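[agent] plan:
  1. take the single chain provided in the ticket
  2. run structure prediction with default settings
  3. attach structure tokens to the ticket
  4. add a short note for the reviewer (M.T.)
[agent] executing step 1
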Amino acid sequence: MDKEILLLVVGGIVAYSMGSFSSAVWIGKWFYNTDVRTHGSGNAGATNTFRVLGTKAGLIVMIIDVLKAWGAVMLANVFADGRLTDSQLIDYKIVLGALAVIGHVFPVFTGFKGGKGVASLVGVVLALYSPYIMLFTLLWFALVFIITRYVSLSSITASLVFALLAIFVFHEQNLYLIILAALIALFVPLTHHKNIKRLVKGEESKLAFRKK
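[agent] step 2 finished; step 3 output follows
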């Protein structure tokens, strides 16, 4: 295999490995002697960490999940330095971001049972799109959450708002970033299909911040 191609592949492996660091699982085990996957929703993500371990742990997990995906995208500047055109570099960043999210949802280090990828998607979006898109999306998320206290509903609607902003308001020009925005609007509802069923039935749990 060509050395340059090998470096790009290694970058992908590192990105997936970074995404596979399941902060919810490890922080729960290391500091709380608790596997969050055996409590609450059974999900290894920030929301279930808030619910099971409390606000402090939830915030730490959320920040780590955002940063690991953002860092995975930024790896492109290291592994593809001078080897790709500007357009190709964006494509490579998208691939690395996708691998980080896949790693979060299916983490190799914790039996391929991870989170739903929302916080990691935030990290990817921060790295690839205008910060104003992320700002307005987060404001929408916060508004829906404050009104309803449903993280799932906030995440689902925010993913749709993000795609609309990126494509129709901020008029993203890169075809692959447009496709990614559309895929995010599909991916988040799909990973929350059980939550959607509970929302329809009125059985979805609301999130209340608390100390552990």
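[agent] step 4 note for reviewer: Residues 1-124 form one domain.
[agent] ticket updated
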